[in-house]
Amino acid sequence: MWRTLSATSQVAAPVHNLFTPIVFSVYIFKVRPQMIFTFSFVILHTLVAKVFEALRSKSQGECRIIYCSENYIIVDKEPDLKINSNNKNERTLQTFLKSKCPAVAKKKLFHEYYFPHRLDYPTSGIICIPKNEKACRAVAKAFSERDTKKYYIAIVRGIFSADLVDINLPIGDDAREVAIHKMCTDNVVFCRNPRNAQTVITVLDEGIFANYPATKILCRIITGRRHQIRVHCSHLGHTIVGDYTYSNRKDVQPPRMYLHCIRLIVPVTIEKIDVSTSDAFTQVKFWTKEKMVQDLSSAYNTIDQYINSL
């Protein structure tokens, strides 16, 4: 049943940006009036795209605090949201925390809150925010020493040929896509600075997404590389549904990328963390489950037993 492969995170557009194409086009019209119809179509297309982008995140729900203690705040982050930004007017996880937990903000920190780990912009799910420096050091150490357990669910294109997959393949920078921080596996010539990366995947459900075969999976990452699950799934030929970057900019119809951090375990002495959310993809438009391979509880056991056997 087990198959092993080895190596031998857009923000809603500000309203004033929506009219940039119009200003540019008015200037063009004065020079080349014969192109008015063509540019009018471009303007309309651009405006529709930008308005959709501006409204998209509102349809995905908002962040919510799911756990709060003396040492930690645990947030269920919405998709398509940055952790922080140098633009103070941009809505981010930082601004959400500022509105809900202003007393926890630290003026000495550039972004006011401790962020010892992160989620990609399009990824939703659990993120841990320490309330003090001691708690932050404990979590940061746990992540650096790989003592944490981080689980994700995803809906991916195609049907997996095995119920469990262990992909152990280094990930590095894609030298062709520096501007967007795209990553790649190290079996291609354009990979730069690869680092070890391991992801264990087990199948939850098989089904259909928008008339195409798809699989819902549970993943546990052993390492924590940028875009790790997205890159490994793409390498397997099972790109995550809605992943614009790793579908070579083709998967644009889904309202979001279907990757969600569903559980986080951090066994620190100051306070053990074991927090989970419900399955974010049980009632997803366009997704139809046709076969349940295993429930979520069984999937956790499947992954943990396999990793413990290594």
Automatic annotation (TrEMBL):
GO terms for biological process: enzyme-directed rRNA pseudouridine synthesis. The keyword Plastid does not apply. Belongs to the pseudouridine synthase RluA family. GO terms for molecular function: pseudouridine synthase activity; RNA binding. SUPFAM superfamilies: Pseudouridine synthase (SSF55120). Keywords: Membrane, Transmembrane, Transmembrane helix. The lineage of its organism: Eukaryota, Metazoa, Ecdysozoa, Arthropoda, Hexapoda. PANTHER family: MITOCHONDRIAL RNA PSEUDOURIDINE SYNTHASE, RNA PSEUDOURIDYLATE SYNTHASE DOMAIN-CONTAINING PROTEIN 1. The chain crosses the membrane at residues 12-29. This is Pseudouridine synthase RsuA/RluA-like domain-containing protein. Residues 71-235 form the Pseudouridine synthase RsuA/RluA-like domain. It holds the Pfam family PseudoU_synth_2. InterPro entries: PsdUridine_synth_cat_dom_sf, PsdUridine_synth_RsuA/RluA, RluA_PseudoU_synthase.
